[in-house]
Amino acid sequence: MFGLFKKIQVDIDGTTYPAAKNSTLLRVCLSHGINIQYKCQSGVCGKCAVIEHTSQGDIPTLACQKVISPSETGRFSTIR
């Protein structure tokens, strides 16, 4: 239970932000005032699309569905 409150770091557009484990990337962006488009917050509209930078390459994903995990590098770019 206490692991839910562990803080991890997420890189968004080259800036590092603290994020709560199991929070969505959209929630992290909104809580830090990052300008990201969104509407439905459930993945239906697709407006919160971002690019996740992984060791396998750049992968498009939806910020409202991407759950932050401490086992990942957490590097993302917003799409403007």
Structure report:
The protein is mostly beta strands and 80 residues long. The protein contains one helix and five strands; from the N terminus they run ββαβββ. The chain has one helix at 25-31; strands spanning 7-12, 15-20, 49-54, 57-62, 75-78. A five-stranded mixed sheet has the order 2-1-5-3-4, with helices on one face. The protein starts with 6 loop residues before the first strand and ends with a strand. Residues 1-5 have low confidence and may be disordered.
Descriptive keywords:
80 residues; 2Fe-2S_ferredoxin-type; five-stranded mixed sheet; disordered N terminus; 5 strands; mainly beta
Task: Summarize the entry for a quick read.
With 80 residues, this protein is mainly beta. The chain has one helix spanning 25-31; strands at 7-12, 15-20, 49-54, 57-62, 75-78. A five-stranded mixed beta sheet has the order 2-1-5-3-4, covered by helices on one side.
Task: Give the topology.
Elements lengths: L6 E6 L2 E6 L4 H7 L17 E6 L2 E6 L12 E4 L2
Parallel strand pairs: 1-5
Antiparallel strand pairs: 1-2, 3-4, 3-5
- The counted number of beta strands is 5
Strand adjacency order, main sheet: 2-1-5-3-4
The N- to C-terminal Cα distance equals 37 Å
Helix content: under 10%
- Give, in order, the helices and strands: EEHEEE
